[in-house]
Amino acid sequence: MNLHAIAAIYKFEMARTWRTLFQSVVSPVISTSLYFVVFGSAIGSRITEIQGVSYGAFIVPGLIMLSLMTQSISNASFAIYFPKFIGTVYELLSAPISYVEIVISYVGAAATKSAALGLIILGTSFFFVDIRIAHPFMMLVFLALTAITFSLFGFIIGIWADNFEKLQIVPLLIVTPLTFLGGTFYSIDMLPEIWQKITLLNPVVYLVSGFRWSFYDVADVNIFVSLGMIGVFLAACLLVVAWIFKTGYRLKS
Amino acid sequence: MASIISIRNLEKRYDSGFQALKGINLDIPDGDIFALLGPNGAGKTTLINVICGIVNPTGGTVEAAGHDIISDYRAARSLIGLVPQELTTDAFETVWATVSFSRGLFGKPRNSAHIEKVLRDLSLWDKRDNMLMTLSGGMKRRVMIAKALSHEPRILFLDEPTAGVDVELRRSMWEVVRSLRAHGVTIILTTHYLEEAEQMADRIGVINAGEIVLVEQKNELMTKLGEKRLTLQLQEPIEQVPEALSAHALELDDAGQALVYTYNANDKRTGINSLFRDLDHAGLRLRDVDTKQSSLEEIFVDLVKAPTAGNTRNDA
Predict the structure, then answer these.
(1) Global pTM?
(2) Which residues 200-219 on chain A approach chain B with CB closer than 8 angstroms?
(3) Of the CATH numbers 3.30.70.1560, 3.60.20.10, 3.30.390.30, 3.40.1190.20, which one belongs to the domain with range B227-293?
(4) Which of B158, B163, B231, B307 lies in disulfide reach of B189, CB 3.0 to 4.6 Å?
């Protein structure tokens, strides 16, 4: 194990966060606060409790998930795309470092950042609504698993993308719609029956539901199904990453 | 001398079908400065990129200090430093941070004293806290060399290191290369400045269209292939080569001021003695005599142009 290399990349990536502190941390916190103001206070005051939880508190897990997923993807995809774009990837490819180590360092750094951001948003939400966390340990497990899985997914996007448009297209056209339709701002019970069925095809539903369960003990789907789904997605991402490195796809000719 | 890089039947065919390397066999002796020459698109960069792990070979093997570059890539790559042709650096990192990063990436523990020495040798010490984006092109080139040297490699690849670099920087870079060689580092460089290869290299390899055309000690190459030109400056201009000298391969220069005789210094009979005898008979009086060894550049152009040059292959 080339631990020095893992440490070097991890430090490099974390240093990038500090340089871009405003963009990395402050702006997601601001936009999440806006969601609280608009959905939680302005609109939420007119919505009755959902599953015994006030609407403002109900949306907190969903909002954290929303940031966690989008930030994991953008952190990890940019981290590997940018060296390819400016050419510094040559150094990574010529270094005595294995693919596993590359993934650990890049995905580890991206997941650390987004998980930290998720906790910051959680902290921010205490200022707006009353929150209780029924299963703190499981909350952290969901937080960590989601951060890692979506950082892996972002890493794949970053390798696949050969221009800035492709880098943005998956988060914009797939992830954001799935997140908004994944029960972030509502319980799927509130949907018409046919849409309740269709929405179960959306993987984000399972993540938000499981994460919300760790807060309020209420869930749209069984908690083990949630864990199983995230496990499946994690395994799928790992398989794709393994294939990428085996073939050198978009990295080596 | 033991070879530190040994390449056997190395092939690279790109997905496009283009065969960039056609069965390269090459040994590079430990501690040499090896200059790889070849026209654009000859395969120089592909060869370097395969050795360094950036391009996958489609056939053959490469060993660096006895370590296969694929099955034993960790050991092989940690011995190698690479300065690629293109200037690619991060923008917002400082010089110190980026060079330290490279050291870590190559699996070496922190060593501030070594990084400081590298930066001082390359006159980068004053710039250590500057962001890379604020540096000039020449400074960025130095940073890339510093990155390649950060992990104390035994083998250093310099791909066109002096392209687009001013004279002063070029000289100081060659100083660094010489001092590395003195410390036992093997240096493999590609260059378009043949003059530099001529001055710097111990051994020269010529690659053309994916094949090694020739590998030779520089001095032997120079003498072996070296034609010499003997220029005879005349006291009085003449209009044509006199009849009495027609037996010799002489050319008259434009103004009729000089006769130029081309010969090979390695030939048993250079024809110089008989030429001088005949000159005397023809009654020509000389003002000055000058001989010139052909430069590497002329040799190189001859090799790459002549299709039969492939016969002179020599696997050192």
Answers:
(1) 0.83
(2) none
(3) 3.30.70.1560
(4) B158
